[in-house]
Design brief:
Number of strands: 20
CATH architecture of the largest domain: 3-Layer(aba) Sandwich
Structural class: alpha+beta
Strand content: 35-45%
Number of domains: 2
Bound molecules: adenosine-5'-triphosphate, magnesium ion
Oligomer: single chain
CATH class of the largest domain: Alpha Beta
Length: about 350
């Protein structure tokens, strides 16, 4: 049976003294896939290893289903084997001298199952990862993606309460990565597993996760559905890590509910969505994703004239550098034709709901 996972106030401080995981709290519901996303060194693997029991947390509690498995303040630490958690790592940790079937059957060895029952579970797991026809093959004769699916089948065969995956696609080539990325979600959902998945790849996070948690320097900055992380980033870091690359300095002049009027350089004003506690008079940074800038006069709000500084043809899209409010911003236009030569003036529109204002750093 899949269980929920509940992490509360998790801390891990290594001998270096700087917390690798710093007061992290979140829940993964039974059957849900949560992805931890963040740059290298932000504490993703350490969080996962604490859940698996491979790392001794410094503080906080971890609960899997009804069982408290980690509570260092009360000297409680359930060993990894007793947590009934499946793990898949970046490297294809398969046994090279065994066949596919033997690899997948391995975790069932000491679980007291009958031969027939074990075979049934192995067949089920191989079906799920679409490797049934490779069952008798030595595992070394498989591709990287197939080996990773063997590792996945092996981690699911004993029906763990929780599946932990640490960048399982990062050793695969780009094309295989895309395919397996889509497969993974389907496989995990088909098995009905609760999963915590770690990656630094934002697209992987969006495709796989029911919810995404963005981490930075040991802290969990935001956890929400992918659409919310993408459209209402909690802070400037989340906005920039998930792809906002235009940053404009300004001052918040007035506020109307969730939105505000921001004064930019050169006398421009812009309507923007404002992060929670911003008060009028505050210096702000506006964050805008290049693909949210529309090169057309769709609305009178946030409509500007801008000079095309340069255009870069990228096949299915064109990236434009545009001069606006004393700086240069990037806009993306999809389609295979370039419409705006350098030196011309374009009218652009930025809907206020995709202009986000944060306190200036
Ligand atoms: N055994 C250890 N001893 C000391 N410091 C450690 C140890 N393991 C991890 N750290 C530190 O803890 C921090 C978080 O590391 P972690 O491996 O969790 O990052 P990550 O988010 O998984 O990064 P990556 O994307 O590179 O895998 C880093 O600063 C790292 O150097
Ligand atoms: Mg890691």
């Amino acid at each position: 049976m899949s269980a929920n996972l509940e992490i509360s106030g998790l801390r891990k401080v290594f001998h270096t003294g700087k917390p690798a995981v710093d007061d992290v709290s979140f829940t993964v519901e039974a059957g849900e896939i949560v992805v931890l996303l963040g740059p290298s060194g932000c504490g993703k693997t350490t969080t996962l290893r604490c859940v698996a029991g491979l790392e001794h947390p410094t503080g906080g509690t971890i609960r899997i289903g009804d069982a408290l498995v980690s509570d260092p303040a009360h000297g409680l630490l359930v060993p990894p084997r007793a947590r009934n958690v499946g793990m898949v790592f970046q490297s294809y940790a398969v046994w090279p001298h065994m066949t596919v079937r033997q690899n997948v059957a391995y975790p069932l060895k000491h679980r007291g199952l009958s031969g027939a029952e074990a075979a049934r579970k192995v067949d089920g797991a191989l079906d799920l990862v679409d490797l049934a026809q490779y069952a008798e093959r030595p595992v070394v004769q498989l591709s990287g993606g197939q080996m990773q699916r063997v590792a996945l089948a092996r981690s699911m065969v004993y029906e763990p309460r929780l599946l932990l995956l640490d960048e399982p696609l990062s050793n695969l080539d780009a094309q295989l990565r895309l395919r397996l990325r889509d497969d993974l979600r389907r496989i995990i959902k088909a098995a009905g597993l609760t999963a915590l998945y770690v990656t630094h790849d934002q697209l992987e996070a969006v495709v796989l996760g029911d919810r995404i948690g963005v981490m930075q320097q040991g802290r969990l900055l935001q956890m929400a559905a992918p659409e919310e992380v993408y459209n209402r980033p909690a802070d400037l870091f989340v906005a920039s890590f998930t792809g906002a690359s235009n940053f404009l300095p300004g001052v918040l002049r007035t506020r109307q509910g969730e939105f505000g009027t921001i004064e930019l350089a050169g006398g421009h004003t812009m309507q923007a969505w404002c992060a929670a506690a911003l008060a009028p008079g505050t210096a702000v940074t506006l964050a805008i994703r290049p693909e949210n800038i529309r090169l057309e006069a769709a609305s009178a709000v946030n409509r500007f004239e801008a000079m095309v500084v340069s255009q870069r043809f990228q096949g299915v899209q064109t990236a434009y550098a545009l001069g606006l409010a004393g700086t240069t911003i990037e806009a993306l236009a999809t389609g295979t034709t370039m419409r705006h030569p350098a030196g011309t003036t374009v009218t652009l529109n930025i809907p206020p709901e995709v202009c986000w204002a944060y306190p200036a750093p």
